[in-house]
Amino acid sequence: MNAGKLIVFSGMDACGKTTNRNHVDMRLNSTGIGYACTREPGGTPYAEAMRKLILSKEFDAPPLSEVLMFYAGRVEHTKTLIKPYLERGYHVLTDRYYDSSLAYQSIQCPETKAIHDACFPHLVVPDMTLLFDVPAEVALERMQRTRSGEMDKIENRGLEYFTQVRNNFLTMASNDPNTIVIDATRPLSEVMDVTWNHVKHCIGYETDED
Ligand code: TYD
Q1: Whether residue 155 has its Cβ less than 6 Å from ligand 1
Q2: How far does the centroid of ligand 1 lie from the alpha carbon of residue 203, in Å?
């Protein structure tokens, strides 16, 4: 049992998870509560270097190599950043964690679950996962509009792939009582309020500010 809570902001590309995590960051900032924000792929200098490799269009690595890279970074990120913060009583808000690999990489790499299971003892089970759910068409349309042609290797995988990613996320959510599905097609201010309320509840923060 961790002293701090691990909260994952999850979902498809362009679902709004980063915007919502940043909003929670801003709200928590003035409370005096100890917390850290991080992300995957990345989060530490080692894993950020891997992020560049993974997402670069310069390389076309086999799906198995891609999964191994994600988990190599994740194990290091967990050991050097996530666990130490949690043990010191800080809450950790991460933009993505292992459910992203199960949703994305399992589509192209049948060994994903076996790699996940092998690494699992080195990972931390999240206290809460917020799944920002949008239909694949909406996510792709948002990506094309906001990325101005600069979509990374994974973002370029197309509608069929993203439909499968969404289904995988929703299937996992339906089997995990700690995952909360948030309809991220609603107006951003509503999604932010819902998100903040779930975070407050998870970390046991009580305030009458709202
Ligand atoms: P992310 O940083 O969320 O994207 P953005 O730069 O748009 O905020 O993630 C980068 C990409 O990596 C994204 O397309 C999803 C993908 N990804 C996986 O395929 N598997 C994983 O395990 C993770 C963590 C990310």
Answers
A1: yes
A2: 26
Unique residue bearing structure tokens 């009583």: 89
With 0-12 / 13-18 / 19 or more C-beta atoms within 10 angstroms meaning exposed / middle / buried, residue 50 is buried
Q: Residue 185: left if φ>0, alpha if ψ -120 to 50, beta else—which one?
A: alpha
What is the Rg, in whole angstroms, of the alpha carbon atoms belonging to the chain? 17
Q: What average pLDDT does this structure show over 83-102?
A: 98
Could you tell me if the CB of 116 is within 6 A of ligand 1?
Answer: no
- Region 138-152: mean pLDDT is 83
Question: Which pLDDT tens digit goes with each residue over 149-198?
Answer: 678 888 888 899 999 999 999 999 999 999 999 999 999 999 999 999 99
Query: HSE (CB half, 13 Å, CA atoms) of 102?
Result: 18
SS3 label, residue 210: coil
